[in-house]
Amino acid sequence: QKKISDVLQKSAPKPGVPADLQNLLTQHFGENRSVIEIEELQLSDSCFLPANDLTHSFSSYLKEICPKWAKLRRNHKEKKSVVMLVLCSSALRCLELIKSMTAFKGDCRVLKLFAKHIKIKEQMNMLEKGMFHIGVGTPGRVKALVEQDALCLNSTKYMILDWNWRDQKLRRMMDIPEV
C-alpha cells in the first residue's frame, strides 16, 4: 500500500495556482455559508500575482513581483502595519525566508511574527513603537495580532503565501488542519 509521503517524494513539486486557494476557501466555508456569501469569497484572478514557478530564489521572485519596492518602502510611514506580509507554515521556515530575502529587502525593517521565543506582547510593543516594511510570520500569530488590533492590514499591499514548501511530513501550509 502506497503512502502519501512516498507519492509526494517521487512527484515533482508544482507551483501553486489561484484555483488552489479558491478551492480551499470553498471547501472550508462551503458547508456553513449561503450561496451569496460563497460568491463574495470568490477572488478574481487579477487579485493574484504570478506564482513562483520554482525557477527563482525567494529574493529574485520578490524583485519580479514587486519592481517598485524601493518607492513603496520609502512611502510607508504607518506604525502597526507592514507593506508586505509573508505567511509560512512554521517559525523555522519564517527564519529561512528572512535569511533568503536579504538581496531584496535592502535596508528595510523585517518583523518576525511567530511564536517561537517571541512573546505576543513584545511583538505588539514593537509594532506600536517602530515602523516595519515586511512581516514574516505564521498564520496563527498573525491572526492573534490582527484580532488584538496590534497589526493593521490597511496598508498591506502584498500578502505572500509560502504555498509550495513542504515540512518534514511533506505537508504544505494548506494541508495542516490548524491553518
UniProtKB/TrEMBL annotation:
Pfam family, one: CMS1
InterPro entries on file: Cms1, P-loop_NTPase
GO CC annotations on file: 90S preribosome; nucleus
PANTHER family in the record: PROTEIN CMSS1 (PTHR24030)
Descriptive protein name: CMS1 protein
Organism: Pycnonotus jocosus
